Amino acid sequence: MKYRCEATSVEGFVQILASNYLPHGYWFYVTGQVPSGKDANAVDAKIIDKYQIGLSRQQRARRKQQGMANLHYVRFQNFFVILATHGKHPFFSSEQKNVKDIRKHPLQFHGYSFTVRRGGFLKKVEGEETATPDGRYRVRVSISRKAYRDLYADLVDRAAHRNLETLRWELWNQPFEPYAPIRKQYLKVLRRMNQVRGSMGYDKLPTDVIRYQRRIVRPFEEKGEKPGQLFEEFEELKNDRQSAQELRFEPVCKGQMIV
């Protein structure tokens, strides 16, 4: 099976890192740009072949047991990132000066910032007096510092000069997908906007002007598909699967021949 690496949307690139690669220990990375004038697909093939990235799940499992690192590669337009797990691999000696640990050096991409940190506290169980510390590493996707400052200043400035419906539309259609840290950033902006509007006697914005669920997309699109399309057919496929199971386990009447 061909190793797929070209993300066709910003949302797809962010999703594949945040949901598939970083949670599984791919914490060491190198970023780069495909030089202008060069064939991006040729660069993809060269990197994948050089570091033996296009491996099956079983091959990755065997390498992990042997203490060897596994790699993934993903590209959006001319920007690419190579990700690696702990272990031995020529990648670390070849890219020694450029390799970064995402736990110490967040990865920046199109205004997003990726990092991996230990969690805070687990949710209290009924009857528990003190919260239990969460010792696991968690992926955090937030708006980068510069992008957040620009967004904050712009929206707070608009709060005093735009009507309620216009602000509703602008907040709902912000380009950053609402991962948990981003939702907190949006709410901080919203609180400040409401302070400004309240001081001028304007109606305040409700919290439902912010999206709380991110869009699920296909990171690697097939030809003919719309980049970043939603999984609109998910429910249909689920219903088809359920129907197939019902047919498979339908009881057979006594004396009925099974063909």
Question: Which descriptors would you attach to this protein?
Answer:
259 residues; alpha+beta; five-stranded mixed β-sheet; 8 helices; 15% strand; globular; disordered C terminus
Short description:
Helices cover 37% and strands 15% of the residues. The protein is an alpha+beta fold.
Extract low-pLDDT stretches: 229-259
Q: Report, as a whole number of angstroms, the end-to-end distance.
A: 34 Å
The H-and-E topology, N to C, reads as: EHEHHEEHEEEEHHHH
Helix content: 25-40%
Structural class: alpha+beta
Q: How would you write the strand order of the largest sheet?
A: 1-3-4-2-5
Counting H and I runs of at least 4 residues, what is the number of helices?
8
Strand content: 15-25%
**Overall pLDDT level:** 85
Anisotropy-based shape: globular
CA-based gyration radius: 24 Å
Count every beta strand, where a strand is a DSSP E run of 2 or more residues: 8
Largest sheet: 5 strands, mixed
